[in-house]
Amino acid sequence: MPLYEHVFLARQDASTQQVEELTTQITGVIEGLGGKVTKTEAWGLRSLTYRMNKNRKAHFVMLNIDGPSAVVAEVERQERINEDIIRYLTVRVEEHEEGPSAMMRKADRDRERDDRGGREGGGFRGDREGRGDREGGGFRGDRGPRRPREDADTAAASEE
Q1: Region entry Disordered: which residue ranges?
Q2: Model pLDDT for residues 35-69, shown as the tens digit of each residue
């Protein structure tokens, strides 16, 4: 049977429990028509790139489906009817990924970065004040040291 990756986005107002119920409902439709869900991943509540149906965030869920095309057609029909589902996308694949998807690996990597803690000073270059190698306000090459600034009155008088 053909293999599919199916992702749907549920409204931000829906609770995690409601999203799990939606996933169970969709899985039931798939299995009722002779298909099989090999993997389910809930990516959680994530920000959308742009607003969809007045929503700025959505719950993302991915299903790996092994079943005939009639299963996908029925699942998509059910999702068009359901008001809690904002968008969906089904892609036919040659084989399913083993292990976690790219989105789950990214979430794990981000969590590891947060666990490391922040750097002192907050920036990549650290504190740039008072480094000692820039006397007089920066490297001037062959131009020599800076001369003192003149007042506006003195500058105007010297021009005349």
Answers
A1: 94-160
A2: 999 999 888 888 888 898 888 999 999 999 999 99
Alpha carbon distance 27, 21 (integer Å): 10
Is residue 111 a part of any domain in this protein? no
First to last CA, the chain: 92
Q: Which two tokens stand for residue 98?
A: 């083993």
Cα separation, 155 vs 160, in Å, equals 9
Q: What is the 3-state secondary structure (H, E, C) of 74-88?
A: HHHHHHHHCCCEEEE
With respect to residue 59, please indicate whether it lies within any of the assigned structural domains.
yes
> Do 108 and 100 meet the contact criterion of CB atoms below 8 Å apart?
yes
Instruction: Please answer whether residues 4 and 90 qualify as being in contact, where contact means their C-beta atoms are separated by less than 8 angstroms.
Output: yes
Q: Is residue 62 in some structural domain?
A: yes
Q: Residues 12, 58: contact at Cβ < 8 Å?
A: yes
Q: Cα–Cα distance between 7 and 41 in angstroms, integer? A: 9
Residue 137 lies in a domain: no
| Domain CATH for 30 | 3.30.70.60
The DSSP call for residue 124 is: S
Tokens of 42: 């809930």
Quick check: 35 and 1 in contact, CB under 8 A? yes
pLDDT of res. 123: 55
